[in-house]
Amino acid sequence: MSIDPELLAILVCPQDHGSLEYIEREQVLVNPRMNIAYRIQDGIPVMLADEAIAWPEERAL
């Protein structure tokens, strides 16, 4: 399932307010500056700072 490009354009990381990158195969939105990701559950991004998961640099985009 992909994310609407218009939605992706307005979503920002709740922690640093920077842009996010979508990885469709993993169903996550990644903040490469902080090495964290936000999962997408049932097509809805879970954009809570407490729900962020570690995203190792080697898994980067």
From TrEMBL:
This is UPF0434 protein CGERO_05185. It comes from the Bacteria. One of its GO terms (cellular component) is cytosol. Pfam families: Trm112p. Belongs to the UPF0434 family. PANTHER family: PROTEIN PREY, MITOCHONDRIAL, ZGC:162634. It comes from Corynebacterium gerontici.
